[in-house]
Design goal:
540 residues, elongated, alpha/beta, 16 strands, Spore Coat Polysaccharide Biosynthesis Protein SpsA, Chain A, single chain
């Protein structure tokens, strides 16, 4: 009763005492007090549990933090270890690649080809790069010059003009058309001139076409080399300045003083074995054309592949559909008169190409158009030529027997006998008598007969040509790995073909790898052509 009474007194403020049922109400207050105490005890227990859980969470968080810290330290240690091991392997690989290149460059002799074909029987002369007779060999007749196109893309003035031109265009040209590697200067011209002087000394003079730039090492006092600016060859001055190589190439035949036949080279062409004019055109006038794989698709937006397809469509309109091919990356012997004919055949296409300030998909591919002009152009057989072919005994007369024997085979499909007899009857009508022998003057002067012969024989290929063997040239694409690139370079120089080129577009390669591969390329090329040419300052 005392404890209950105490509780009753503690809760007296919340209990209202009616005059009746006093003890019943006392019991109710006791129950309320017990309930309040239980609630207070549960609340206290919850608070203790909450603080206990917080303490446990801190402990678990601390453990997690420690584990993360240990993991980060472990990863950093592994990264440092891998970096040290990788750097060691990288240095070892570079050492092996340079050792391999040094070995293969020392094995290169430069004089691999033993046979030198004769070009023409003529007087000995000194109209060549060396200025003296070439070991008993005559000079090419007609003479042959060399033409290079060159640009120094690292020149700040060139870069400024390119930016101005891009703004003037009003539209952003294809990134590939103005990519830095299209204008990059890697000292290739110097090495290509060394190779030209070493392996093609029969060239008379060298012309270098530039936008006004001059290599710092070039000796302009040498009379055998001339720098030609774009302004000197572009008839329409509004097409300048230009950064499009197809536009420049379309006007190289306009160089003043250039020989009728000339050798066209890019600055990355290398002649790696001795060559002579017969490697490009025989003494009988047969052209040598170097072709690569069939034309296929390329990266979207690349103007080079677009121009290949545009040139293919242009040729298809004149010569019909055909499976045409890439041109090999080699020097090409060209004739100025034939380039002028191409301009007359396709004036609109060449005008569009010339007007392009940067590469465009509508450009004409210079070497492709020229090569397929040689291989596809046809013409009617002149009556004089046909008479010489059928005059077997070279007597200057056609006999009836000669006509019946040779005329049926003057074209791929033999002529039937009645057609041959019709030609004989026409000639007899022109002679005015039933003759069995016809003189050259009578045949060429008989218009009905010559017209009939032209229709029967049809057209023939205008030029004689042959495809150059694939083993005479090689295009080496350098891969990102310096050691692999060194192996590729060694394969290219241990057994060099007549013409070599190296693809040094290191797109997608990290800077260090690209730099090392570029150094390897420069090293091995300088080792192969270590003797300065006469076109370099202080070459003596």
């Amino acid at each position: 009763m005392v404890r209950g009474h105490d509780t009753y007194r503690a809760r007296s403020a919340t209990c209202v005492w009616p005059p009746l049922d006093r003890w019943k109400k006392v019991a109710q207050c006791k129950n309320q007090a017990l309930t309040a105490k239980k609630v207070q005890r549960d609340y206290t227990r919850k608070i203790k549990r909450y603080f206990h859980e917080m303490r446990s969470s801190r402990i678990r968080l601390s453990r997690i933090q420690n584990k993360c810290l240990y993991g980060v330290l472990l990863l950093l240690g592994c990264a440092v270890l891998f970096h040290l091991v990788g750097w060691s392997l990288w240095r070892r690989k570079l050492y092996l690649s340079w050792q391999l290149m040094h070995q293969c460059s020392s094995e290169y002799s430069g004089e691999v080809r033993d046979e030198f074909p004769s070009f023409s029987a003529g007087a000995m002369c000194s109209e060549n790069l060396l200025g003296h007779p070439l070991a008993g060999r005559p000079c090419p007749d007609p003479p042959i010059d060399a033409v290079y196109t060159w640009v120094n893309g690292s020149d700040p003035e060139f870069q400024r003009q390119l930016e101005v031109t891009k703004r003037q265009l009003g539209i952003q040209p294809s990134p590939v058309a103005v990519a830095a590697n299209r204008f990059a200067e890697s000292d290739e011209l110097r090495l290509s001139l060394r190779a030209l002087e070493l392996h093609a000394p029969w060239v008379r003079r060298v012309f270098v076409v530039t936008n006004g730039q001059v290599p710092a090492w070039l000796d302009l006092n040498n009379p055998r080399i001339t720098v030609v600016t774009h302004a000197e060859i572009f008839p329409d001055k509004s097409h300048q300045p230009t950064f499009s190589s197809p536009a420049i190439e379309s006007h190289v035949h306009r160089i003043e003083g250039l020989s009728e036949r000339f050798l066209y080279l890019n600055d990355d062409f290398l002649i790696t074995q001795p060559v002579w004019p017969e490697d490009f055109i025989s003494s009988s006038g047969e052209y040598t054309i170097y072709m690569d794989w069939p034309i296929g698709g390329g990266p979207p937006g690349d103007p080079f592949y677009g121009s290949l397809q545009s040139t293919d469509r242009m040729l298809e309109q004149r010569y019909g559909a055909a499976k045409r091919r890439y041109m090999a990356h080699v020097p090409m012997l060209m004739e100025r008169r034939l380039l002028r004919e191409l301009h007359e055949l396709f004036p609109a296409e060449y005008a569009t190409t010339s007007a392009g300030r940067v590469r465009q998909p509508t450009d004409i591919q210079f070497q492709m158009a020229y090569s397929y002009f040689i291989t596809s152009e046809r013409r009617a057989v002149p009556a004089e030529q046909l008479f010489e072919e059928l005059d077997i005994d070279r007597s200057g007369y056609w006999s009836v027997d000669e006509i019946r024997t040779t005329l049926p085979w003057a074209r791929p499909l033999p002529l039937p006998p009645d057609v041959v007899n019709s030609v004989i009857s026409t000639l007899q009508d022109c002679s005015g008598k039933n003759s069995s022998v016809f003189s050259r003057e009578l045949v060429l002067g008989c218009a009905p007969a010559t017209h009939q012969l032209r229709q029967l024989v049809g057209t023939r290929p205008r030029f004689r040509y042959r495809l150059g063997p694939r083993e005479h040239w090689r295009m080496t694409t350098l891969r990102p790995d310096p050691y692999v690139a060194a192996g590729d370079l060694c394969k290219a120089v241990r057994d060099p073909p007549r013409f070599s080129a190296f693809n040094n577009e290191f797109s997608g390669i990290d800077g260090s790898s690209a730099l090392e591969v570029s150094r390897e390329l420069q090293y091995i090329l300088r080792a192969l052509f270590n003797k300065p040419s006469q076109f370099e300052k202080n070459s003596s």
